[in-house]
Amino acid sequence: MTNEANGAARQGVEVRLENLHRRYGTIVALDDLSLTLAPGELVALLGPSGCGKTTALRLVAGLEDADGGRVVFGGNDVTALPTNRRDVGMVFQAYSLFPHMVAWENVAFGLQMRKVNPEERKKTALEMLELVGLARFANRYASQLSGGQQQRVALARALAIRPQVLLLDEPLSALDAKVRSRLRDEIRRIQLEVGITTLFVTHDQEEALAIADRVGVMQAGRLEQLGPPTQVYSRPATPFVADFVGLTNRLDGNVKSGAVEVRGVSLPLVRPDVADGPATALVRPEAVSVAAEGEAMDGPLVGTVIAVAFLGAVSRVTVDLGDVRVLAQMPTSAASQHPAGTRVRLDLRPDPVLIQREETAPAGA
Amino acid sequence: MAAVTGFRRSRRVKVQVFRIVVFGVAAIFFLVPIFAMLEFSTRSGANFTSPRTLTFWKQIFDYPDLVAAITASLQLAAITSIAMLVLLVPTMVWVRLRLRRISRIIEFICLLPLTIPAIVLVVGFFPMYQWMGNNFSDSILTLAFAYLILVLPYCYRALDAGLGAIDVKTLTEAARSLGAGWFTVMWRVIMPNISNAVLNAIFLSVALVLGEYTIANNLLYNNLQVEIAQLGRANAGVSIAVAVAALLFAFALLLVLGFLGRTRRQAEEKLILTYAREMGRSV
After folding, report:
1. Contact between residue A221 and residue A31 where contact means Cβ atoms under 8 Å apart
2. Using the beta-carbon criterion (under 8 Å), do B174 and A141 form an inter-chain contact?
């Protein structure tokens, strides 16, 4: 890839979604969604099926019309523009290469639409295929490429037109785990290299946390939280985010003076300004550990190991405390000392936690 | 083990023989009448001993009405095919993209002519053609409107199969996001990927139009089949020669379409073989 091809025209623009609203019959798919992407930033929209993330992306692409709100690229309102005049590059979840064209012709298609001369568009197409590492497959049809290769060609095709915004609609979901992980890293590398503002939609939290500058967690057409991956994971804004991103233990406790007491351990609150009283604390498995041997085997945090799940470098241990099961995540070497059936005592690390109260779902959050 | 292999081989032979017999019977059923027509139109007398002659074939051009009917039928075939594609392809694509909920209604409307006998269609067409003749044109080419309805069910089925084989929505959205307008999407993205279905639909249209008699005759237009029928009363030899020529034309068209489809498939297979060889080397 030449520096020329990565030229100034490819530098990202600010993208603003302002109060976007979309309704399908009685179902509200997007409920006044507002989001600003800084130039060159990669924002991942994460959420369960039907949360509105794909709808948001399609409104940005112009593939659907908003019932209300605006889409602004670099200060220009593009809400009324049709897709073909929005200057967006898009990679779809389904394989979208034109079956009757070989790889380089697919990549050159957008350039042809922009009336670039044939020589220049072939040169650019080959450069783009080089960028995604597929230059030697330039003369292959889609049917002769693997799923991962097809998505890389689709990425090259989306980038070849030097769009203002790159939109990725779950481009990895049809791929197997290994290819997905490799291509995910490659997308991030290329995005950083090209410096294009990118909106990435996924339901895979690992994918979102791994490559995004910021992650937006969506539920029922609204953004529950938007922030850097570490913040979303370690400081979830709502119980939904805590539940959806990563695993969470739900332990009954009692809020008192800005902390929650859980089974004799006082844990600070993410937001201490909540009323005293009973609540459920949301505790991450990595904040739970098994106490060293020799400590007293009594108290409310003593239980029996019922399962150990090997995850590679770390393992997840499930401990039955009698009234509740608790997940603890620890290095595999430590977990191996506590096979199923062992009596253990758990320790809770005093990380700030969220609480949930039945009467108001996001209470204390 | 040997007994099982023997049983399988014997079964395979039986299936093969059955296929050949069915094919042979079907071939006789179709070819004997055509051969008889060819014989009849190339003999100067009424029996097999009569000398060969091409008089009837040469006389085709001595009947200006017949030549006009042939020309009109070919024009009608072309107009109907083009109109059918212009009407059906964008409609079917649009329904798949935006109006999924009415796809059953569109299918029902397109298949409806299949259930209505041609003579009933004529009764419906008659007042419209009367009005059209008085106010617009009474050219035989206006039959294209009626033929368009006639070919709808067959062409709908052919095109539906083609569109069903590709992801219309994703391909369209991909092309749109790359800057393509709707015409470009249709012409450069959809059509090349349903080319076999389009060829099949065109073939069906041409075959139906060239063979159509009832509507033209009852609406008082002289197309090829009407002319052949009329000529049959005056000069049976020429009439049969034209009928054979029409059949041969349809047959040639089928061969050409089949050849086009095969050439494309062979090109794809060749590329796949090259790919497989390269992969084999790299392994």
Report:
1. yes
2. no
Q: Are residues A200 and A256 in the same domain?
A: no
Q: Which two tokens stand for residue B183?
A: 């015409």
Phi-psi group of B15: left, alpha or beta (phi > 0 → left; psi -120 to 50 → alpha; rest → beta): alpha
Confidence label for A363 from pLDDT (cuts 50, 70 and 90): very low
Query: pTM here?
Result: 0.77
pLDDT at B278: 53
pLDDT > 90: what percent of chain A?
Answer: 48
Domain end (from A239, A264, A293): A239
**Does A152 score more than 60 pLDDT?**
yes
Q: Given the structure tokens 């080319």, which residue do they identify?
A: B195
Residues B127 and B3 in one domain: no
Residues of B in contact with A63 (CB under 8 A): 173, 176-177
A16 and A92 housed in the same domain = yes
Distance CA B42, CA B57 (A): 8
- Gap between the Cα atoms of A30 and A16, Å rounded: 15
Nearest CA in chain A to B172: A96
Which chain B residues touch A141 with a CB distance below 8 Å?
268, 271
Is B119 at the interface with chain A, CB within 8 A? no
When the pLDDT of each residue in chain A is averaged and rounded to a whole number, the result is 87
Same domain, yes or no, for A229 and A252?
Answer: no
B191 touches chain A (CB under 8 A): no
- Residues B91, B207 share a domain: yes
Q: Indicate the pLDDT class of residue A167, thresholds 50, 70 and 90.
A: very high
Closest by CA to B149, choosing from B118, B105, B104, is B118
Mean pLDDT for A255-279 is 87
- pLDDT tops 60 at residue A246: yes
Look at A94 and B167 and tell me if their CB atoms are within 8 Å.
Answer: yes
8 Å CB contact of A140 and B193: no
Q: Mind listing the pLDDT tens digit for each residue in A27-62?
A: 999 999 999 999 999 999 999 988 999 999 999 999
What's the pLDDT score for residue B274? Answer: 59
**Do A98 and B189 count as a contact with CB atoms less than 8 A apart?**
yes
CB-CB under 8 Å, B275 with A92: no
Q: What is the DSSP string of A135-193?
A: GGGTT-BGGGS-HHHHHHHHHHHHHHT--SEEEEESTTTTS-HHHHHHHHHHHHHHHHH
The total domain count for chain B is 2
Instruction: Specify whether the backbone of A52 is left (phi greater than 0), alpha (psi in -120 to 50) or beta.
Output: left
Same domain, A279 and A218: no
Query: How many separate domains does chain A show?
Result: 2
Domain containing residue A306 = 247-356
Q: Which residues from chain A sit within 8 angstroms of residue B275, using beta carbons?
A: 140, 144
A358 or B141: which carries more pLDDT confidence? Answer: B141
> Above 80 in pLDDT, residue B261?
no
pLDDT digits (tens, 9 = 90+) for B187-220: 999 999 998 899 889 989 988 998 899 999 998 8
Residue A280 sits in the same domain as residue A233 = no
In a domain, A51, yes or no: yes
Q: Percentage of chain A surpassing pLDDT 70?
A: 93
Domain membership of residue B108 as a residue range: 62-282
A26 CB burial (10 A radius; 0-12, 13-18, 19+): exposed
Distance from the B255 Cα atom to the nearest Cα atom in chain A, whole angstroms: 23
Task: Please give the backbone phi and psi of residue A217, each rounded to the nearest 5 degrees, phi first.
Answer: -95, 125
